[in-house]
Design a protein that fits this description.
heterodimer, A: 295 residues, alpha/beta, Helix Hairpins, Pyruvate Kinase, Chain: A, domain 1, 5-stranded mixed beta sheet, elongated, B: 134 residues, alpha+beta, ATP Synthase, domain 1, 2 domains, 8-stranded mixed beta sheet, 8 strands
Chain lengths: 295, 134
């Protein structure tokens, strides 16, 4: 049995751990709100963008000379995977789940005989994949511990992707990130981004023009040329924002658990501590009494 | 409300304006155009410049960069990459920034550096012109 001093130290250390996890939980809760607001604020733009893309792409995808960003390169040999995680850990299974999803996709794609390249966005994504797939990681982006999540970062990643695509480094691209289902539930998902034609959700709301047709200024092709790069950035941005919100949700849940576990541990240790103290007092008393009797 | 135009201004990070207005003048790729209620469906790319929102005799001007405008029977939506409210914008530091951008261009050694600096200068100059006109 541990000595009383050891037990006291143990209890003190668990208590301070509990304080830390409690603080982290509260910080995560505050940040979650902000991240959710940011994700919410970005939604109208993404929705409008998707609607316009849907409109344009249906009328243009069969046109000769359509942009490869839209219709693809005509083959699907090299697939780029953008694996997006958080920069930081201590958020439960959040990063691990995304990394697992990524590994599943890689194994599946390789089974189909495709070449896979990886872009690691977020520190943890690189950390999780470097052991198995170090030779496949062609680029990595970090998020400054979550501070850099925003339009400039999305534009930087998008720009790099477009340059690589223009050089023919890959044929198709998908983004593996976390879907923010609710505060306590995040689901890893893989979504196609290039070719953009396959990326547009079926259920996009199209405006009712009442039989009229759009006039285009300057023309459909040039608008699409402007639009496609932005579309890439927008999808990257909304994935980043959704990920940030998911990360905070996951951290909040994980830290809540940790705080509760620490509380249980403290209760148990306190019990052991008090029992040990009692036992010690009883032993001392018995010793004194039997000593007195012996006289 | 048939006599009012529903106008939406959104940037990637937030919705900047949503509401009913009288008229909006949009800096289109091929020249400025005004959108009144009941405008025909139109989709246009946007150049850098000020978008003017007319409502109740008042004009609110916002500098926008990059994006496009879409007119549907439901109204006008403008998707801009960047938007700066000119009413609260402080233009005093702009001239110095423009000077800096010019120096960056002459100091640039590589092509992409120069392109980058030129884009920055074009943005600043457009912003200055828009701020002056306000």
């Amino acid at each position: 049995m541990a000595s009383l001093k050891e037990l006291r130290n143990r209890i003190a250390s668990v208590k301070s751990t509990q304080k830390i996890t409690k603080a982290m939980q509260m910080v995560a809760a505050a940040k979650l709100r902000r991240a959710q607001d940011a994700a919410e604020a970005a939604r109208p733009y993404a929705e409008r963008m998707a609607a316009v893309m849907a409109n344009l792409s249906t009328s243009l995808k069969d046109a000769p000379g359509a942009s490869p960003l839209l219709v693809g390169t005509g083959k699907d040999d090299v697939r780029m995977l953008v694996v997006m995680t958080a920069d930081r850990g201590l958020c439960g299974g959040f990063n691990t789940n995304i990394a697992r999803k990524a590994r599943e996709r890689i194994v599946k794609l390789q089974g189909e005989g495709k070449t896979v390249k990886i872009v690691a966005v977020g520190k943890k994504s690189f950390d999780a994949l470097k052991r198995l797939y170090a030779d496949k990681i062609v680029q990595r982006f970090e998020l400054g511990g979550g501070k850099d999540v925003g339009a400039p970062k999305a534009a930087q990643i998008g720009q790099w992707i477009r340059e690589q695509f223009a050089e023919g480094a890959f044929d198709t691209l998908e983004v593996i990130s976390s879907e923010f289902v609710s505060v306590i539930s995040q689901k890893p998902r893989a979504q196609t981004l290039i070719p953009a034609m396959d990326a547009i959700p079926e259920d996009v709301e199209r405006p009712d023009l009442g039989g009229a047709v759009y006039e285009y200024e300057p023309d459909e092709e040039s608008i699409l040329d402007v639009l496609l790069p932005r579309y890439v950035d927008t999808v990257i941005l909304s994935s980043l924002l959704e990920n940030a919100a998911g990360e905070m949700g996951a951290r909040m849940a994980a830290m809540d658990n940790a705080t509760r576990n620490a509380g249980e541990l403290i209760d148990k240790l306190n019990l052991v501590y008090n029992r040990t103290r009692q036992a010690k007092i009883t032993t001392e008393l018995t010793e004194i009494i039997s000593g007195a009797e012996a006289l | 409300m048939a006599d009012k135009l529903h106008f939406d201004l959104v940037s990637p990070e937030q919705r900047l304006f949503e509401g009913e207005v009288d008229m909006v003048v949009v800096p289109g790729e091929e020249g400025e155009f005004g959108v009144l209620p009941g405008h025909a469906p139109l989709m246009s790319a946007i150049r850098m410049g000020a978008i003017a929102v007319h409502d109740g005799g008042q004009v609110t001007r916002t500098f926008i960069r990059g994006g496009f405008a879409e007119v549907t029977p439901d109204g006008l939506s403008v998707l801009a990459e960047e938007a700066i409210d000119l009413a609260t914008f402080d233009a005093s530091g702009l001239d110095a920034e423009i000077q800096n951008a010019r120096e960056d261009i002459s100091a640039a050694k590589e092509d992409h550096e120069r392109e980058h600096a030129e884009a920055a200068l074009a943005r600043l100059e457009a912003l200055r012109d828009a701020a002056r006109a306000a």
